[in-house]
């Protein structure tokens, strides 16, 4: 029997909680504990009895953790904490600011090479599984185009933007892919689609008492970057309706590749989709599988930064290569 | 500029022809030629000017080919030719007799280890991309079930079975997934589905003049293994209709994984699907991408047999790791 992979979780928001659940259901893993910048005594874990450490004590646990799963935010936390932690631990994170990936990769690669550790960045579903499917599509159908649609799902950033509008008490925003645009893509016609043609935005808003709803709606629909380029609907609801009907955080989406072979004679469609009740829990499950892969590669002595593109699929599975060939191939 | 990957194609049926097209559109590859057991002068390649060699001359080309793509049949050809070729070349094949994969893997592994070459087996879409998606699904949603549906597409084996019935002049068989079964799967209810509930079989039959059509239909519908466990429809058509409406070889299918997180509180659906105008050309395109991966791994000195589970996605792409991170992640 192999030794269990000792996993630590840094950050305890929705993804950290999901990672706790996923590690505990993995028979080949042992959860060392949760590491937080908050007062550890203030953190109540989902599962009773999980140890909570101060992040400032992490250095003393260097030899007790095989992989740290970094469940912190991409905007400000990971760019700073990531390299610090990669200097001590093998890490897996879900850094998702697409435009800053090259820069973050370089910082993590430097830190991990110096420490002799591995740092796997940008794991989840986008970036993550969707990226993988974009790569597979381009590799197998080089004469073609790929399209990514998101939703139906909650966008945190857009929900936050709604809540910053004066008179808005609470709000949630759903990104919805336009079915007719997806059908056009699946037809293989490789359409050029504008932002407006690909997604609509549905806003459910709780207004403060006496607020000017028409003005709120106007501000939403004209907000640059967030809403003005989309067909946006605004529905005012009560706080009770928000709690009752909109408390889950579903998400998902589609990566569609269409392409041709034989000098254009034959068309092909590859499609990958996700429909998730809980964005955070699924993302965490993906992180935990990739933590398994990183623990295995670290044992072989590999160092430096990696992305999902570098990880052979077999490393994600608890099954042996023989079992995989016999049962899943 | 890197040297081009020198590729040979063994076997020149539909997949071999598709591989020729895919290699020629890959800028990083050079097609050395086609190797055949037939008289080379009798083989007319799709693209004029492709060299055709006798397979018996392959040994003399050992140093002129980086990867051989084996486009021969799984029933009798590959079990014999595969190990012989792996004793001389790096190989990629589409061995697809699921039940015999462990045995074939062992034979290829032995041959390739002895020759210091790499042998990648069972590449295509099932086994192949569908296998990958079964693995990903199981890894990310360990509490769940996966389902594979095939079609709508032409089954060669079933079409051959129809043609062996007395009085049948020509015939084609489509495997069709049952939409209501797929919807039940997508609901996350993890239904137990019988063979009959998952797929129907549609047969288009050209009868010989004066043949007893009722008897043909009875023989089809009661044929064990092939049709008796399915809801099968038989439609008699003319030879002209067969040629006009059924000359393409489309195929495709769906791998659906559903699973739960948070002790069953949240459901998730992962779905991968293919819709292919030409089964053979798409399969060949996948083989060619994996030939690229094998050429790269062989350069690193790896030897022995591999499956799709062992290949890191980045190896499939013509893009550099930096380009991949910037453009697809």
Automatic annotation (TrEMBL), chains A, B:
Name of one Pfam family that matches: DAPDH_C
Binding, substrate: 150, 175, 201, 251, 279
Claim: Amino-acid biosynthesis is one of the keywords in the record: yes
Annotated metabolic or biological route of this protein: Amino-acid biosynthesis; L-lysine biosynthesis via DAP pathway; DL-2,6-diaminopimelate from (S)-tetrahydrodipicolinate: step 1/1
Annotated Meso-diaminopimelate D-dehydrogenase C-terminal domain residues: 124-278
GO molecular function, one term: nucleotide binding
Protein name: Meso-diaminopimelate D-dehydrogenase
Organism: Candidatus Gallacutalibacter pullicola
């Amino acid at each position: 029997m192999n030794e269990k992979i000792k996993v630590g979780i840094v950050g305890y928001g929705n993804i950290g909680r999901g990672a706790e659940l996923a590690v505990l259901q993995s028979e080949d893993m042992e959860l060392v504990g949760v590491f937080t910048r908050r007062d550890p005594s203030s953190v109540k874990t989902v599962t009773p009895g999980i140890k909570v450490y101060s992040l400032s004590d992490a250095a003393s646990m260097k030899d007790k953790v095989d992989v740290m799963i970094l469940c912190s935010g991409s905007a400000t936390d990971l760019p700073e904490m990531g390299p610090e932690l990669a200097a001590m631990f093998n890490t897996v994170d879900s850094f998702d600011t697409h435009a800053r990936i090259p820069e973050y990769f370089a910082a993590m690669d430097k830190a991990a090479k110096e420490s002799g550790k591995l740092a796997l960045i940008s794991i989840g579903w986008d970036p993550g599984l969707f990226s993988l499917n974009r790569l597979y599509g381009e590799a197998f159908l080089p004469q073609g185009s790929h399209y990514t649609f998101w939703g139906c799902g909650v966008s945190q950033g857009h929900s936050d933007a709604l809540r910053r509008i004066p008179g808005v008490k609470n709000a949630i925003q759903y990104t919805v892919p336009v079915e007719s645009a997806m059908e056009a893509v699946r037809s293989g016609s490789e359409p050029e689609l504008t932002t407006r043609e690909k997604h609509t935005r549905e806003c459910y808003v709780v207004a403060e008492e006496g607020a000017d709803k028409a003005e709120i709606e106007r501000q939403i629909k004209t907000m640059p970057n967030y809403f003005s380029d989309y067909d946006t609907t605004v529905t005012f609801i009560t706080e009770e309706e928000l709690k009752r009907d909109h408390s889950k955080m579903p998400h998902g989406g589609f990566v569609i590749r269409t392409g041709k072979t034989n000098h254009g004679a034959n068309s092909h469609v590859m499609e990958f989709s996700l429909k998730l009740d809980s964005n955070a829990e699924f993302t965490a499950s993906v992180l935990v599988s990739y933590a398994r892969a990183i623990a295995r590669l670290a044992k072989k002595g590999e160092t430096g930064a990696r992305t999902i593109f570098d990880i052979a699929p077999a490393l994600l599975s608890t099954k042996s290569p023989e079992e995989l060939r016999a049962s899943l191939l």
